[in-house]
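In response to the reviewer comment on reproducibility (Comment 2.3), we provide here a single inverse folding case reported in full, input and output, so that an independent group could reproduce the run without further information from us. The structure tokens appear first.
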């Protein structure tokens, strides 16, 4: 039997890898953390129902991971980002999460997250060749 590596984007193959890793990981987590996966989507909409920002994340076992948080530039500094964070944090508390995990680039929102009580636990230099 031969094996080869492909480069195409294949949703079915991606789902297989995700599912198998998830099953493997479940073997190593305590019983009370099994089946604890939930997508989180919070959105800022205007009166016309147009999305002006949002927070995308997931609860995975005992933490909330925030993948994306974005607020349209013209409504920044009005507290919407903080409201999104607080809402997500409250969901995490309700779900008995132990911590929140996220990442950001220095030009994105590092100061915003620090202002909201987040601490840096690691850094990568030269991401996007930033100086």
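Designed residues, in position order:
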């Amino acid at each position: 039997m031969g094996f080869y590596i492909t480069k195409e984007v294949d949703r079915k193959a991606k789902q297989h890898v995700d599912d198998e890793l998830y099953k493997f990981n479940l073997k190593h987590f305590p019983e009370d953390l099994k089946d604890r996966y939930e997508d989180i989507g919070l959105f800022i909409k205007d009166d016309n129902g147009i999305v002006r920002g949002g927070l995308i994340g997931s609860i995975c076992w005992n933490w909330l991971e925030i993948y994306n948080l974005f607020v349209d530039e013209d409504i920044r500094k009005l507290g919407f980002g903080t409201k999104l964070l607080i809402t997500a944090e409250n969901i995490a508390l309700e779900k008995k999460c132990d911590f929140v995990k996220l990442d950001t680039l220095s030009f994105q929102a590092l100061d915003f997250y620090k202002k909201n009580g987040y601490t840096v636990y690691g850094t990568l230099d030269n991401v996007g060749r930033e100086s």
